[in-house]
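Bench log. Compound arrived from synthesis this morning; before running ITC I wanted a structural hypothesis for how zinc ion sits in the protein. Inputs:
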Amino acid sequence: MASRLLVRSALRALTRGPGTARVPLAARSMSAGGIPTDEEQATGLERKIMKALEKGKDPYSMLKPPQYAGTKEDPHIVPSINKKRIVGCICEEDNTSVIWFWLHEGEPQRCPSCGAHYKLVPHELPH
Ligand SMILES: [Zn+2]
């Protein structure tokens, strides 16, 4: 039944003469390339973020942070727009409590509980 309907509608479409009215294509159809991409239509802050992501930067820390060993040679990098930032350390994977402490700009500091190293790095927002 459905196949007969398909055949009939296909035949009707094929037998239409040039004088019959056609449905105009949408001006912004995908086949015409009319729908702008995110990159083409983004403005303002969204555009700045997209441009930064293209360059491999992550200005608003939207991506998963890189992993650090937490040793003196490879401290956890903590970006901050201020001279100090409060940091929460989950010292061991299964801990249910978080150790909070202030991290200041300059030399790497250690977590008072587990001794992992943290280093504050200046960070500038793109706007
Ligand atoms: Zn810790």
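What the model suggests: The first helix runs from residue 2 to 15. The pocket of zinc ion is lined by residues 89, 91, 99, 111, 113-114, 116 (CB under 6 Å).
ITC booked for Thursday regardless.
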